[in-house]
Design goal:
106 residues, alpha+beta, Arc Repressor Mutant, subunit A, three-stranded antiparallel beta sheet, 3 strands, 59% helix
């Protein structure tokens, strides 16, 4: 058991610690599930039930990290932005999932 925990701690050093917040992980998972079209800010806010400040700051960080891209779109005469996951974002999310899987013993 102790060796397993030491291994998990060691493996965690390879992960990007900036992604380890529940809002960031939820945002990435949600955007990934929605596919190439991504999601609007309003969709994310409503679906994840995050406050504006939390959603905005986490999207901003994910964009700076290169995990999310923002694209302007026009929908029903409204100028909106959609957010999509990048390949780097997918890779980071896969690493986090694999690491969590080790905690579960997968």
């Amino acid at each position: 058991m102790e060796d397993r925990i030491i291994g998990l701690v060691s493996d965690s050093k390879a992960l990007n610690s900036k992604i380890f917040s529940l809002p960031k992980i939820l945002i990435l998972i949600s955007i990934e599930k929605l596919g190439e079209d991504g999601a609007t800010y309003t969709d994310l806010r409503a679906g994840l039930e995050l406050k504006d400040g939390i959603l905005h700051s986490n999207l901003k960080t994910l964009k700076k990290m290169g995990y999310v891209v923002e694209k302007p779109v026009k929908l029903e005469k409204k100028n909106l932005k959609t957010y999509s996951i990048t390949n780097e974002g997918r890779e980071a999310l896969m690493s986090v999932r694999a690491w969590f899987g080790k905690w579960r013993g997968e």
